[in-house]
Amino acid sequence: MINFDIEGLQSLVWHYAGVEGIITPTTWEIIICKSVGGKHIPGNIFMSDGILDSFGLSMKSRILKFTKGTKQTVDFIQCRCPLNENEDIGSQIIETLVKKREESFREFNLDNMMDVSILHNRSGDDYNVRVFAEEQDRYEDLNLIWKNSCGYLDSHKSWKLKRMEGNDKTFHTCLMVKKVFDVTKCVANFTLKSVNRYDIPMEEAKEKYAKSKVQSK
How many CB atoms lie within 10 A of CB 5? Predict the structure, then answer.
């Protein structure tokens, strides 16, 4: 497993929440990498958004209100997925996931992929954060049953992988992954005070902008 500097994580959240108002997905990647002493991989090219030793860090963030209980079900867009409508959709989805994982392994000399999932939201000056980290499923080993572009684990009650329908004429559609999170197993779960300095009145913005132009001359 990877170790988080929780105090560092909270400090970075406090800083960026004040700067951005709502922390963006790219900023979350930077925050997580700094919190574990890893290296950020910019852009949206590889499955791995960061690396730490032999671990790839695949990071997803969602702005969500937290459930009152200990369990919360969340779906994420994992990646783009080229599909041929005349072939088996399920096998193509798995092939895409494995291909993207192995590309990261080869490029960065990795042998493990960790999923780091961040659930967050702002309520006034309170910024709420939950971070989960777990080894990524080996998708090719899952016992999935496919029906209508959805992959189900054993029982048919809830899908795990799902093709997200779109209007793309080349069928280069998105793939969604559903996870059930247990709050008792999260890496970090905190609320901190962070004044939203991102949202300012128009007149204040004009005043600051005018001052910046004078100072730049």
Answer: 13
The full set of domain ranges for the chain reads 6-216
What is the pLDDT at residue 166? 57
Sign of the alpha-carbon dihedral angle for 209, 210, 212, 217: positive
Query: What b/e sequence results for 95-117 when a residue is b if at least 16 CB atoms lie within 10 Å of its CB, and e otherwise?
Result: ebbeebbeebbeebebeebbbbb
- How far is the C-alpha of 164 from the C-alpha of 176, rounded, in Å? 6
Beta bridge partners of 60: 117
Q: What are phi and psi of 31, to 5 degrees?
A: -60, -50
| Residues whose CB is less than 8 angstroms from the CB of residue 205 and which lie 6 or more positions away in sequence, other chains included | none
Q: CB 161: neighbour CB atoms within 10 A?
A: 25
**Full-model pTM:** 0.87
Read off the pLDDT of residues 171-184 as tens digits, 9 standing for 90 and up.
Answer: 457 889 999 999 99
What is the spatial distance between Cα 102 and Cα 48, in angstroms, rounded to a whole number? 10
| Alpha carbon 195 to chain centroid, angstroms | 24
